[in-house]
Design brief:
It is built from 4 helices and 2 strands. The radius of gyration is 21 Å and the shape is elongated. The protein has a two-stranded antiparallel ribbon with strand order 1-2. By secondary structure, it is mostly helical. β1 and β2 form a beta hairpin. The longest helix is centred in the N-terminal third of the chain and has 37 residues.
């Protein structure tokens, strides 16, 4: 498990910085586009490029956001439970996240293969093929699923109401 944890940590860091690079590239592209429009020489296709870079920003940042606990969670109901039940529900939630993300990642990987081999789907104006972005979606969800598994394994045990340790941690 330590090898998986190390590999996921390295990939999460790489994806994080690629996501940051996408944000920087988007900002630069938008600034250049505004300047060129002001000089009556519009840059064609910048909307498509920004939309495709947004895929990178979101998908490459999913695992890192999970790692730092940045995804939105609402505890209106769960916060009323005992620490033992909160820990159990936290484990269940992370297991559902991992399963769902791995399933979505696999489905998108299959779709990317179809896009690459069968139907060549591309953007309208610049005709950029979409299969690399489907691969990015797939990798983002797969890494998020793996990050969820690693975070579940790394959570410290939480004491239950009876004093016994409950694997998977939780919010005391």
């Amino acid at each position: 498990m330590k090898i998986l944890s190390s590999a996921v940590a390295i990939l999460t860091t790489i994806f994080r910085w690629l996501s940051v690079a996408c944000v920087a590239a988007m900002a630069l592209l938008i600034a250049v586009s505004v300047v060129l429009r002001a000089t009556s020489t519009p840059l064609g296709g910048e909307h498509e490029l920004v939309e495709l870079m947004m895929v990178g920003v979101v998908m490459l940042g999913l695992a890192y956001t999970h790692k730092v606990g940045g995804h939105i969670s609402i505890g209106l109901l769960v916060d009323r439970f005992s620490p033992r039940w909160q820990a159990k529900l936290d484990v269940l939630a992370v297991m559902l996240i991992a399963g769902t993300c791995l399933l979505i990642g696999w489905a998108n990987l299959r779709m990317a293969y179809d896009y690459a081999t069968g139907s060549s789907i591309s953007t309208d104006f610049l005709s950029i093929p979409l299969f690399p972005f489907k691969i990015m979606v797939s990798l983002g969800f797969l890494l998020w699923g793996l990050q969820a598994i690693v975070s579940l394994a790394e959570k410290p045990a939480t004491k239950t109401d009876s004093g016994r340790a409950l694997a998977g941690g939780g919010n005391p």
